[in-house]
Amino acid sequence: MSTIEQETETEETTDESAEPTVESPGERRRAEKQERAQAREDQRVDEEIDHSEETITLKVFRYDPEVEGKEEPRFDDFTVPFHKGMTVLDALIYSRDHYDSSLTFRHSCRQAVCGSDALFINGRQRLACKTQIADLDAGTIRIEPLPHQEVVKDLVVDMEHFYDQMEAVEPYFDADELPDDELEEQRQDRENREKIKMSTRCIWCGACMSSCNIAAGDNEYLGPAAINKAYRFAMDEREGEQRKQERLRIIEQEHGVWRCQTQFSCTEVCPKDIPLTEHIQELKREAVKNNLKFW
Amino acid sequence: MSQSYNRGTVEDFGRWRDFSAGMWAWIFHKFTGWVLVGYLFTHIAVLSTAIQGEALYNGTLQGLEALLVVRFLEVGLLAVAVFHILNGLRLLFVDLGIGLEAQDKSFYASMVLTGAIVVASIPTFLGGKLV
Fold this sequence. Notes:
heterodimer; A: alpha+beta; Ubiquitin-like (UB roll); Fumarate Reductase Iron-sulfur Protein, Chain B, domain 2; 2 domains; 5-stranded mixed sheet; 11 helices; 7 strands; B: mainly alpha; 3 helical TM bundles of succinate and fumarate reductases; 4 helices; 71% helix; Succ_DH/fum_Rdtase_N (chain A); 2Fe-2S_ferredoxin-type (chain A); 2 iron, 2 sulfur cluster binding (chain A); iron-sulfur (chain A)
C-alpha cells in the first residue's frame, strides 16, 4: 500500500482539504472497505464461536480396501459446529478439512445440479448438498454410501452400472426428420413441453436406482432413472413416430418397465421431485396400447 | 480399484424401519397374496371331502369349526383377503395413473378399512358356540 502513496499523490486535485494528505480517495475507499470486511469477518467468527456450542455429530461410513487396517468397514464420528443453513455436505467438507483429509466423497456444484453427492443419510437416499441439517430430526447424522451399489471407498460408490443402464435407453434427442435448414429451430409446443417438463430435470444422481428394491435384485432392470429418460424422449413429439416405436421396443422388454412394482421408493427419494412411478406407469400403458391396437 | 465392498442384504429388509408407505403396501400385498395361495390348497382339500359323501364333509367342517384356533385363523384369513382386495383396487388406480400423489393415503385408508372390517367380523367368527 505504502508504495502506491507516492505515485498517486500527484493526481490528488479533487481533494478539498487544504493540507496535502498522503492518502488518495481510492486508497481511503480501499481502507474503509477493508475495515468493513474485517468487521464482518470478526462478526462472523464471533457468531461461529457463539454457535459452536451447538454441535452435531456425523457418523460416517468408512472403508478403504487399499489401506491396511481400513479394509474392514467401520463408522467414524465427527463433531462439527453447526451453523444456520448448514447442509450435510457442508458438515462433510468441514470434517474432511478439519479432522481427516482422507475422508472421501463426491461433490461438485453444491447446489443440487451436478448430482454427484447422492448419499444414504439417516436411512434415506438424499443429496447431501440439498439436505439441511436443521431438517433432520436426529441429533446424530448417519451418512453411508448409496445402498445397492458397490462401495469403492468411504462414501464413493461405483456408478458404472447406473450409467450403463442410462445409456441403454439412448438418452439423446434423435428426430426422424431434421429441418432442411440446419439452423432452423425444432420447436415444441407448450403442452408437450409441460408434459415432459419434470422428466427433463433428472441429474443422474442415482438416488432412485439405489432406493429401488427391484433394481437391487435384478441387475438387468433398467431402473427408474433410465426409464424416466426414455419417457422424456418417447413423449417428445418432435422425435416422430418411428423413433418412438424404437424407444418403446427398448423399454417394453422383460427387464424394462414391467419390472416396476410400484413401490414408489424412487418417487419418494428423487431430489428433483420427478414423478418417476407415474412416468413408468404411463410408459406401461403406452406399451400396452401400442401392442393391442384395437383402434 | 482392487476390490469393492458389498454390504449384502442388510440394505434391504434390515432397514424395515425406514420403509415408506408404498414399500409397506408392496410387502403386505406380496405377503397376503402368498397366504391366499396357500389357503387355496387347504380350501380345496377341505371341500373335496364332499366327494367321499355328506357325512365326511359335515364331520370335517364341524370338526374344524370346533377348534378355537380355526376361528382365529378365519379372522386372519378375512383380514388378509380384505387387505388384498382393497390394495388391489389401489394398485388398479395406480396402473391407470389415477391419484398417484395420494398413493400413501390410499394405502393407509385400505389399512384402516381392513382393520374396521376385521373388528366388525369378530362377533361372527368367534361368537358362535364351540361344539
